Amino acid sequence: MTYSGPIIDCDVHHDWATPEHLHPYLSSGWQEYVAGPGRLYGGGESIPLFPAQLIPNPTGTNRPEAFPGNGHAAASDYDLMNEQLLDPFRIERVVLQYGASGFIGALSNPYFATEIARAANDWSIDQWLSRDDSRLYGAVLVATQQPDEAAAEVRRVGGHPRMAEVLLASSGLGKPFGHPAYHPIYEAAVEMGLPVAIHTGGEAFANQGVSPMASGMPMFYYEVAMLTFMGSMTHITSLISHGVFEKFPDLKVLIVESGLGWVPGLLWRLDAGYRALRRELPWLKKHPSEYFAEHFRITTQPLDCPPDKEQLIQLLEMFDGANTLCFSSDYPHWDGDEISYVSEWLPSSWHDRVFRENAVELYGWSELAGASEAESLSAR
User: Fold this and answer.
1) Of the candidates 122, 107, 129, the residue with the CA atom closest to the CA atom of residue 33
2) CA distance 76 to 15
3) What is the pLDDT of residues 41-68, one digit of tens each?
4) CA 333, 211, 175, 268 torsion: positive or negative?
5) What are φ and ψ of residue 224, in 5° steps?
6) 239 within a domain of the structure (yes/no)
7) Could you tell me the CATH number of the domain that includes residue 210?
8) Which domain does 93 fall in, by range?
């Protein structure tokens, strides 16, 4: 059955139309910096706001129809997003998470990255979250190169009523996200009542030498795309191992755009290893799989689909997929998952949970809890 109820989309990538649209949100000194050769010599391009991808995607990233047609970036036009996503698919709320522009953790200059995060959050609030459309929610973008500054940014804008989460899009320090260096970010997130979203992939952009793969640099984009989940496995293991959830018991983490098929094997291995090596981690009071069940949620896209639908359901049941998955379309990426596609692969008894209720609980949207379909849609 195709799900037809209200939907919360946990991963939509909005973007500024051109880099110049973000420049006014930078402080005056950084505006001079990014003007670069154009300012100094009367020509040339501005300094890029985020680094180039090490291995380009040969098919591009975005759906052709998501481009406004005026030379502006995909998903930079609200009216077009409304026409293609928000209205046709009964969207109740979306969480806007930036596109490649969010991978500022890959910048080598930590101060520039911190400034872009501040400017991007102000731009997002001004251009998107201030619209008269209650479906639009945002993510607090932070530069992970400077965790203390990142925490300050969470506290600066995290109280905005349309901010839904804190976005970590690449490990700017070259360390997995459980490392104590990042703990100030989690402290601030818990203080502001926001979950943390981890969107891997930023390590595939030029940075300080962090490989996007576990054993070295890939040569093909195919390798990058197929193995992105390795970063998520690393971060999950690190967060649990470092006792982050004992230190911050109210912290929730959403793993975004990393697939699903790898989850059961990772949890089995973590539990088995914990039984053998728990003396090294005396601060842990539960099995890793218990921490995962209590603190992690994971987006549906990309939905790893085996030849047999029943195999997918069996796999998802191994980590309580009905209560762990949160729907995401990944708009405007061409390899995003349509609502009909996802609903056809999942049991109909899961639909309300996956397409709406799990996200309501994750984001603490108590005003939506228990609302009927008519009430939730009219609340827009």
Assistant:
1) 107
2) 5
3) 556 678 888 877 878 889 999 999 999 9
4) positive
5) -60, -50
6) yes
7) 3.20.20.140
8) 7-378
